[in-house]
Each structure stands twice: as structure tokens, then as C-alpha cells.
What we know:
The protein is of the alpha+beta class. 29% of the residues lie in helices and 18% in strands. The protein has a single domain, classed as ECO RV Endonuclease, Chain A (3-Layer(aba) Sandwich), CATH 3.40.600.10. The chain has helices spanning 3-6, 17-27, 32-38, 53-62, 115-120, 151-169, 218-227, and strands at 80-86, 96-100, 123-129, 145-147, 184-188, 197-200, 206-209, 212-216. A hairpin with a 5-residue loop joins strand 6 (197-200) and strand 7. Helix 3 packs across helix 4. The protein binds a DNA duplex through residues 1, 47-56, 58-59, 66-70, 73, 83, 85, 93-97, 99-100, 130, 177-179, 185, 187-193, 195, 197, 211, 213, 217-218.
Amino acid sequence: MCQGNKNSVKTFPPETEAELWARALLIAQCTLGDLAATVSMTVPKDFRREKGFIGQLLERVLGATAGNLSKPDFTQLGIELKTLPLNPNGQPKESTYVSIVPLMSRDRLSWRNCDLYQKLRHILWIPYCFDKALDPEHWRIGSPILWSPSAEDEAVLRADWEELMGLVQMGQLDQINARLGEYLQIRPKAMNAKVRTEGLGNNGECVRTSPRGFYLRPSFTAKILARS
DNA sequence: GCGTGATCATGG
DNA sequence: CCATGATCACGC
Length: 228
């Protein structure tokens, strides 16, 4: 980690959705290097040791406030910030992490009240071109997308969530893999495969298992892009 | 250790 | 080729 990033500047949080949107429009077409300079950060040459850099850069530039709380980044506005890496062909390159999977929840869950939905209900997408042929400082930010799931999106997301959380709550952790779910999938979310946390066994008892997260498939974020 | 930000690296 | 499973850094 370079010294410049430790001392980087934070932007004041936007007070309204319109203000956030205006800021997002202002940075469209900027390079990561230009943006980083405005908040005294330095763009890494590769992301092997700084995978979250671009997300943290955009949090600073746009004035996100939630830190590591399980809340939308712009808490007062209820808006989640997500960067979206695109291949040079304009398609999403990676899945999008959304939230941690609550592996110990035994209570009946409500879709509209779950952490996952609270983040999915309103997202500011910031696409950028992930081009291995260029140094990351020259990668360009694209046009922002302020998105909420359509009724059809929500129906699929909710069905995926119900299927996946059904397995979690029934203690069927060993049946969960990233192939399940049409738009949403569950994948490991930890420093490494040895990390353990508590989950539910098939008799409702506590078992040790790996932490997992909910991710949106690239095929779904591609639909969001195509529609915008 | 957990949740935030994600991308890496390899097997199918 | 690309999705799955694995991995990296930070704040607290």
C-alpha cells in the first residue's frame, strides 16, 4: 500500500440523488489516473494485491459513507455503489459481489427486508473498461447507470434467493455451489479456503463452514447494461 | 473474525 | 474461453 493512498482525500457525501447523479456524470470518460489524482490516491499497476482498489477509489470520489457496515454505500439515499468491469468488447468481465450470506439465520426471512434486497433495490453502476493492454491508470470510466430491478428482475432474483436461502436454512450447505441460481449465485467469500465460520447443519445445529457471498452473474449485469 | 471493496487463476 | 472456487487488502 502506498503512502499516498493512506492519506487520501474524501469527498463530502452527496445530499440528494440528483447530486450523486451529477457527480457520476462528471467523472464519465475520465481515466482512473485522473480520478485518483483528485483524491490523492495512486492506481496500482496490477490488482493482485489490491483487488478492491477501484471500488474504494470511486467511494472516495463520489462520497460514499457506509464503510464496512452492511448498508448501502450512500446510506441516507439508500443507494448502493457498484463498479462494473467491462471487457474491451463492452461485456461485464466479472460477477458482482453484493452481500454476505447469512449462514446462521434460522428465522423466516422476508425478501423485502433482507440485506441482499436492501442493496439490490437501488444501485449506481459505474462501468469502466478493464483492458489488460493498457496500464490501469489509463482505463476509462464509462457512463453511469442508476438502476432498480424491474418487476421481472425482482421475481427472478427473489426466486434465486429463496432457493439458495432454502438450502442454507435446511442445513444443505454441501449442496450449494456457484451453478445454482439464474441471476444470483453463492460463492466463497473469504481470505482463503481455510477460513471457517458458523453455519447450520442438517439438524439445525452449528457447523463450521466457509463464509460465502451472494454474487450477480455477468450475464445478468450484461442485461442491465444493454437496457440502459 | 467479519464485512467492506473486488479480481485472480485454473479446471472443465 | 470463461465460470467457479480461491484469494488479497483494509477497518474495526
